């Protein structure tokens, strides 16, 4: 990415407003007015066919008439004029187009949108929008938008896919006291998208935290890569998680994906922290922009009220950072700063008698102690103590501790005095909230940030003992032969080409061939109908298990074929698969979908009711290293089953992790061919005993006609 | 309960402050000052041994010296003096003691606390506290507390078990703009507890919503009864849900109970809505005090911004009220009040162009439409529209619709203008929040309220075909014979006495007796060791199944006895149980614990991994009607298994519901004897095929020595 071009677009030294107007109420009026009122120090060039003067500035009929350079052109003329204006901008040497105008893909005019981007790219320009509010930047004193004013100053940057929400959030920064340096409306994302914004903001000197409102990503892979490479915390509020997902999924795995699970996985893997609602986006943005990640599990809570202490304890458990007692020495020391009826456990209850000194001494000691990884300080307003005094004590203690690599957050419950003290704390770098739950939640965000960063640090090292060419050959042959898709036998051969253990399966077309294969594979065997017209093999009487002799195989062959014909008269029957019958173990299911946003993914779950009833599965964007795959195994509720719960032996999770990792490589290598896959069931045995894929399906992408 | 006495305590017409003082900083000073400053119109009698004058009021050496009647005495003298003062108050005819002083059970002085209550009851007085902040009431202009001022006026009443939290919440009412008529500190609950408060507040003319901060209840049954009888909405924030539960539970069921699940069940059954944190308590209190319950499932959302619309849709799903599209006719009508690019689906998107008229017309139409059960109205502040104007439109529409039996809530996202508009809305009876998620959450609260009320409306009609006497006789015999507790055979006999189907089980002491019993019961049979020293029968080789002949029974008897002796040499062996082997079906588990707060409960879950790994169980306070029991069956994640998921036949849920209901009667009738029970497994068959208890345990209460 050319950061310089984006600098021109997003931090322009000069702006043309194409469609500038002197008529109040028009957007072309508002944008010029907002630029003037925000104190923008670059050149402003109103563009209007009539020329003359607009809001005291000389207006030009065309950008081509402007004497100086133009970095960015804010476009507020009707959509149909934009291509022509864009071309003029290109000729003028403009770097970026801020296309505020609507009337493009959001109303079905994808053609117009594509045209504008093509023109822009022809001239090396980038396009923000269309259908946006504009851009706002405090450090550049630049309000090139129709949002009425710059947000409260701060060190975060908001990128929003919803313009209405951006305007509303802009106003609410003053109410919520969470500051932003920039707010950027990204609209239809015809060109500049979230991936670009993350990369550019990571280089922006005035941004400490990147905050996103996301309805849907374009180019999920590049977003993930840029997010993973970013040095700054990124937080996203993703809307649309309740959407009913891709309507008609072809496979089992597809139907389990929905829209939410894959986004969750992608954000986790990219080191992006998520927000649960608007308040939470503000709360977490504040903490992420002020505090470092929490590198360990030990959260200490210090309070002057038992009630809020217990509430915060509940919150800590809810948000995945349950409290532990501090070591004896810590408790001993803390006891010096509280009355007899206080408590030095966790939460540390200084009691309602606690004034500035007790807070200051205990915070300073605890924050510096190596056992403590993060600190939440709670205060209930009392008549006897002054919230501002407590706030000053806390800030002095944090500063005196010299600690800069652990997070701290604060909650004061009270009235206007507490509000004022919290505003002061925030100005002094300590995030503070009126709700104890929020103070704990943001520490959890800082913990999630550290965990996600750890997870993102496992690079995928491709397996070299795989035979991609063989896999492609099978697919090619199958496609050439028919449109019926891959059979089980073919699918399994592809899994085998990627070094995955499969229950050996061969296709027989006659009784005698079936017997030969069974003898070769070894008894007992399972036999199954192979027909792309029969998906539910058991229902069709197309499966026979535990066959131990040539006679049984012969009989099974005949029965299966006649059952299949009875089930569906005109079924196209390829034959009967003969497969070694794997000894029984624990059933799991692996799968993949080729997601339109993120590309190939892998899924893991336990078999049977865990998937059928409980939908207890976890997704990752592929590929995953064996370490990441191993971590997936603990993600599901049924994880104890593999770990060896209640006297059961532990299962071979290493073998499963290897299998998953190879699986993820397969779906990536063959992403151009494979749409969805299931390996169901996969049987996993006791530790060091391995795992085996018993049944498998690969659904190919449809060929574009 | 004598409401008149509580009126004297909680809405006193005259108050003595025992321990009143003229020294600033003393609580005895603060309470008198607060009474004066709050404008209290009753008589205030400062009591101080020195007499004279305190803060301009005549002081008395003793309450006995006061000329007039005293309704309530606020006590701020040290704990050790309280019994004597209480006796004087009794002699004076005081109605209630507001014991602000601490130093009682919270520091181990349960004796002193009991003494005070005994004295009070001797004179017909009630005791609030000890260890409390006091009472605050706007309608009585009475601040008899050391909290610095009365809360923002409103129609809710807060009862708090934490004093520090009450003071902090008092102050924060002004920040959050949620008003309360009363705030009552309940402290150690030596006498007046939550059950009393709910009953009394339900009769209080100035209270529309009862809001509770609960750390733990006393007398859970009476609380539930009073809550169920209350005509007003009740909301509770319960802290301590992360507590690790009753440490050493004797049974399986006990270990599954934890502290949270039983409280959740009790609140649901009592019609009490729960809050998840402090903000949520304020948010939901506001809505419950202003709006009626939501009687159906159809929530309609009207918005001017797609972004917040989608976020609210996600919230609706999260809170259990997923959106459906409105009928065509509704959509047709709504389309008249939006531009072409708006959407009349759900959410209804009026677009950013929507001004007062569109809001007003669409709200008025939608709110009055029979399909709509509840309405959430969202607004993103724009530069072009005036939030106050929108607010007035909404209020006018709601009023003009004439609808009073459906709830509406509002969220404006924006700055100070939106805040002001929302304050106005709240003053005009419409709850409004800065966060769309909150507006949806409170509608969910109003839906939960309606659902809980429905659930509470199923009375339990005791089964008459039960033999309590026979059950008691078995327990009596067992207790007389030994301290070994009930055997499986005895336990099952008790279940049978309550009309529950059990796999017939008899105790054999010899081989021949075993054979006789097997012939009588019918083959196949299962045989199991009966010894209170051997709990894990299978591990001891003490179980043999599928025995089909006299010979097999003989051999099994010998093997079981010798295995048991090998397993534990000195085991006290009662014999070998012979039991009919029930045909296989779906395994479920029923159980009960006798909870210290709520008494007998029942639990239901699916067997195997659902309980062992996933802890997927649900509790109810016993007894439960068959209808309530039937509803329990849908409460667990594994519910589809019983309903007949994925081609399985539905199971006999009616039989299970009957069984659960009888079970609940058993544990209630015998609550004085039974501590915990398990029926595990219970096998349930296809519809109309019944269910049978295969194994059962009853653990008796320990006898007090």
Give the strand order, joined by hyphens, for the main sheet of chain A.
Answer: 9-8-11-10-12-13-14
Bulk shape of chain A? flat
Number of H- or I-type helical stretches of chain A: 24
Structural class of chain A: alpha/beta
Short description, anyone?
The structure is a homodimer of 705-residue chains. Chain A is 39% helix and 21% strand. The first copy, chain A, contains 24 helices and 29 strands.
Layout of strands and helices, then pairs:
Two copies of one chain form a homodimer.
Chain A: H1 3-10, E1 14-18, H2 27-37, E2 43-47, E3 53-54, E4 57-58, E5 72-75, H3 82-92, E6 96-99, H4 110-122, E7 126-128, E8 134-137, E9 142-145, E10 156-160, H5 163-176, E11 180-185, H6 194-202, E12 209-214, H7 220-229, E13 234-238, H8 252-257, H9 260-269, E14 272-275, H10 278-290, E15 299-303, H11 306-318, H12 328-334, E16 348-349, H13 356-368, E17 374-380, H14 387-401, E18 408-413, H15 416-427, E19 432-433, H16 436-456, H17 468-481, H18 488-497, E20 505-508, H19 511-521, E21 525-531, E22 543-547, H20 550-567, E23 573-580, E24 586-595, E25 599-606, H21 609-612, E26 617-621, H22 626-632, H23 639-643, H24 653-669, E27 674-684, E28 691-693, E29 696-700
Parallel strand pairs in A: 1-2, 1-5, 5-6, 6-7, 10-11, 10-12, 12-13, 13-14, 15-16, 15-17, 17-18, 18-19
Antiparallel strand pairs in A: 3-4, 8-9, 8-11, 20-23, 21-22, 21-23, 24-25, 24-27, 25-26, 27-28, 27-29
């Amino acid at each position: 990415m050319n950061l310089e071009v984006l600098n021109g677009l997003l931090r322009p030294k000069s702006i043309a407003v194409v469609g500038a107007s002197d008529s109040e109420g028009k957007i072309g009026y508002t944008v010029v007015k907002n630029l003037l009122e925000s104190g923008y120090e670059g050149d402003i060039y109103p563009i209007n066919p009539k020329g003359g003067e607009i809001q005291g500035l000389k207006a030009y009929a065309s950008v081509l008439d402007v004497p100086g350079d133009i970095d960015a052109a804010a476009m507020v003329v009707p959509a149909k004029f934009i291509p022509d204006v864009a071309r003029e901008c290109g000729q003028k040497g403009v770097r970026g187009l801020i296309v505020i105008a609507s009337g493009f893909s959001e109303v079905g005019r994808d053609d117009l949108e594509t045209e504008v981007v093509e023109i822009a790219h022809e001239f090396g320009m980038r396009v923000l929008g269309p259908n946006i509010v504009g851009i706002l930047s405090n450090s550049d004193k630049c309000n090139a938008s129709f949002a009425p004013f710059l947000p409260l100053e701060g060190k975060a940057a908001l990128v929003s896919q919803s313009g209405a929400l951006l305007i509303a959030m802009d106003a609410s920064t003053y109410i919520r006291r969470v500051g932003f340096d920039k707010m950027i409306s990204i609209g239809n994302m015809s060109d500049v998208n979230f991936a670009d914004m993350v990369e550019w903001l990571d280089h922006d000197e005035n941004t400490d935290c990147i905050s996103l409102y996301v309805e849907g990503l374009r180019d999920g892979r590049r977003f993930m890569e840029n997010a993973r490479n970013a040095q700054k915390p990124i937080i996203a509020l993703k809307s649309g998680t309740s959407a009913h997902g891709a309507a008609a999924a072809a496979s089992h795995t597809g139907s389990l994906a929905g829209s939410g699970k894959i986004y969750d996985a992608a954000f986790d893997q990219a080191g992006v922290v998520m927000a649960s609602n608007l308040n939470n986006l503000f709360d977490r943005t504040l903490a992420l922009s002020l505090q470092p990640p929490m590198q360990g599990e030990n959260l200490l809570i210090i309070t002057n009220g038992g009630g809020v202490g217990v509430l915060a304890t509940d919150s800590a458990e809810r948000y995945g950072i349950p409290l532990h007692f501090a070591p004896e020495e810590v408790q001993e020391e803390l006891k010096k700063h509280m009355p007899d009826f206080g408590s030095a456990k966790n939460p540390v209850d200084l009691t309602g008698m606690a004034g500035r000194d007790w807070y200051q001494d205990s915070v300073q000691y605890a924050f510096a102690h190596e056992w403590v990884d993060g600190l939440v300080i709670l205060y209930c307003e009392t008549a006897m103590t002054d919230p501002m005094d407590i706030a000053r004590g806390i800030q002095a203690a944090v500063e005196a501790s010299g600690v800069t690599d652990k997070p701290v957050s604060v909650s004061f419950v009270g009235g206007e005095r507490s509000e004022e003290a919290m505003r002061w704390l925030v100005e002094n770098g300590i995030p503070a909230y009126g709700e104890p739950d929020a103070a704990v939640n943001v520490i959890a965000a800082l913990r999630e940030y550290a965990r996600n960063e750890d997870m993102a640090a496992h690079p995928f090292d491709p397996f070299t003992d795989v035979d991609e060419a063989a896999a492609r050959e099978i697919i090619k042959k199958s496609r050439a032969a028919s449109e019926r898709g891959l059979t089980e036998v073919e699918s399994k051969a592809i899994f085998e080409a990627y070094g995955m253990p499969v229950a050996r399966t061969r296709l027989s077309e006659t009784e005698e061939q079936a017997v030969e294969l069974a003898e070769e594979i070894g008894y007992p065997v399972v036999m199954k109908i192979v027909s792309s017209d029969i998906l539910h093999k058991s229902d069709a009487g197309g499966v026979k298990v535990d066959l131990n002799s040539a006679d049984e195989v012969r009989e099974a062959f005949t029965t299966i074929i006649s059952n299949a014909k009875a089930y569906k008269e005109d079924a196209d029957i390829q034959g009967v698969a003969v497969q070694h019958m794997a000894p029984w173990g624990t059933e799991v299911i692996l799968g993949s979908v080729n997601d339109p946003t993120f590309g190939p993914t892998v899924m893991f779950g336990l078999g049977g009711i865990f998937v059928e009833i409980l939908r207890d599965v976890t997704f990752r964007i592929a590929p995953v290293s064996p370490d990441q795959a191993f971590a997936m195994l603990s993600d599901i509720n049924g994880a104890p089953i593999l770990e060896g719960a209640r006297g059961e032996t532990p299962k071979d999770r290493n073998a499963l992790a290897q299998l998953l990792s190879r699986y993820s490589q397969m779906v990536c290598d063959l992403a151009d061919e494979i749409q969805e896959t299931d390996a169901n069931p996969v049987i996993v045995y006791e530790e060091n005993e391995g795992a085996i894929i018993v049944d498998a399906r690969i659904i190919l992408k449809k060929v574009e006609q």
